[in-house]
């Protein structure tokens, strides 16, 4: 974990910040006094105070208390956050940004001596099952990367990749939970259309997804191999997969990932 003297300050207290805060606080070595948040909505700030026992404050106070500043606002808001933080950033700060698409150079253009680490986490961080990819900016050294990795490790798996892969990562694992949630939503609806009660359908779909994910992770076999093992010749799975292939699921998934990657690039260009 971060050291006892570190204070992590979140700018933006939305869904992603909450997932990271919950992970941090699951680590028994970190105290609630080591996490602060700056959030514009008073009721959201209140919720975070009530739920996690952390403090909320304004920009100046946050920069004063925290040495690790996590940027967790929407990419479109990043420029105004940089402007608001700039007068308060000193040599003791480092910045971790989770904003989709926003390059470390965007921060470095204003915070010229500040180490910046760009991170793409995902919301399963909330339940300790996240995956986050970290990429160092020009001023970040191994110590800053290690701090970012230790923070993210409280929420799940951490990988390091070059920053030029982060838009693609955003399209796969950052956005990825939504692909699986949509599939679950559609499967549950389809289950009810063949006569299964909705709550039973939910149990069937959730446990099937969990079992498939654990097999993918632990069996040593790849996705195609595991699918082949379910697919008896001339059987039910073949009937279903034929429909998915004929109707273009491969192209649909590929187009979706490209669209998400392109949007990440676009968000970064606007920031
Ligand atoms: N959600 C996800 O799955 C993931 C999100 N991310 C990234 O995390 C970042 C946050 O996303 P997410 O948590 O979903 O977004 P949210 O909108 O849930 O959270 C952002 C919060 O910050 C508040 N806010 C806006 N401006 C300021 C400001 N100037 N100072 C303080 N707080 C402010 C927002 O208020 P308001 O609503 O008024 O704008 C909102 O409550 C984004 O950059 C996103 O790309 C990365 C990986 C996954
Ligand atoms: O939808 C978004 O833009 C953010 C980034 C990745 C997941 N959610």
UniProtKB/TrEMBL annotation:
Catalyzes the reduction of 1-pyrroline-5-carboxylate (PCA) to L-proline. HAMAP family: P5C_reductase. InterPro entries: 6-PGluconate_DH-like_C_sf, NAD(P)-bd_dom_sf, P5C_Rdtase_cat_N, P5CR-like_CS, P5CR_dimer, Pyrroline-COOH_reductase. Its EC number is 1.5.1.2. It catalyses: L-proline + NAD(+) = (S)-1-pyrroline-5-carboxylate + NADH + 2 H(+); L-proline + NADP(+) = (S)-1-pyrroline-5-carboxylate + NADPH + 2 H(+). NADP(+) binds at residues 72-75. Residues 8-101 form the Pyrroline-5-carboxylate reductase catalytic N-terminal domain. This is Pyrroline-5-carboxylate reductase. GO terms for cellular component: cytoplasm. Residues 163-267 form the Pyrroline-5-carboxylate reductase dimerisation domain. GO terms for molecular function: pyrroline-5-carboxylate reductase activity. SUPFAM superfamilies: 6-phosphogluconate dehydrogenase C-terminal domain-like (SSF48179), NAD(P)-binding Rossmann-fold domains (SSF51735). Belongs to the pyrroline-5-carboxylate reductase family. GO terms for biological process: L-proline biosynthetic process. It comes from the Bacteria. Keywords: Amino-acid biosynthesis, Cytoplasm, NADP, Oxidoreductase, Proline biosynthesis. It is an enzyme of class 1 (oxidoreductase). Pathway: Amino-acid biosynthesis; L-proline biosynthesis; L-proline from L-glutamate 5-semialdehyde: step 1/1. It is found in: Cytoplasm.
